Amino acid sequence: MISDTQKHDKPLSPKDIAGKLKFDSELDAAEAGRRLPNEQAVKAFDVPVIVDTTQCIKGCHICIESCPVDCLAISPITGKAHMKYDECWYCLACEVDCPTNAITVKIPFFIR
Question: Quick one: fold of 49-105?
Answer without folding.
Answer: Alpha-Beta Plaits (3.30.70)
